[in-house]
């Protein structure tokens, strides 16, 4: 049986993880060995457990202890504390409505290296400074569904393990391998050293169309997506092997990065068939 602890004191330090610490404080860059993240909903928590993430504690509606959360709790050591209260109390504590009434604080897993990612992948998504956690989550969901083998991110972008990002991804941030690109170096050249051609998604006069056959024939291809609003940096585009566009109509100048990723991943992931 899990250790059920009714919430009686909102100021209890054990609840800081859920109520008072920011995402960056949980990330704990100064002490990565003790870095945490918060997963929300049984689906996301279950996929995090499947990926080997270690739970630290739970915060949930009392009714879910023997309901929707029972299967999740049965997978965890009995001494993991489970803080429980009615939904109204939890909403007052956390300041937001819990999706499916269940949160779990977990230790952050070690990330693979770029070399390990490249060795096992044929199609990679590269996200340059994508800042919005909702977009990150949606991109990971599309990557999992549409044939991307992994995701690489620049450090300035949003964290895939932010609560909103992992929730929007439906837990797919734990299914798709990912890691951060090295800082201060030309990472397009790093990818090239591992056998990848890079395709920058940008609407330019010299861009080729997304369905150009030469893209599908590339044995290893990295699809490079830019930040919201400004898109990819000019320097990044200049260093990529291809500049690729999704043709627009009705005067629309571009798609949201999450929507564009779904189109690009379908065409360059599932629809690609290298010779």
UniProtKB/TrEMBL annotation:
Q: Which GO terms describe its biological process?
A: methylation; RNA processing
Return the Pfam families for the record: SpoU_methylase
Q: Where is the tRNA/rRNA methyltransferase SpoU type domain?
A: 124-266
GO-annotated molecular function = RNA binding; RNA methyltransferase activity
**Which keywords annotate this record?**
Methyltransferase, Transferase
Where on the tree of life does the source sit, at the highest rank? Bacteria
| Name the UniProt record assigns to this protein | RNA methyltransferase
Organism of origin is: Dysosmobacter segnis
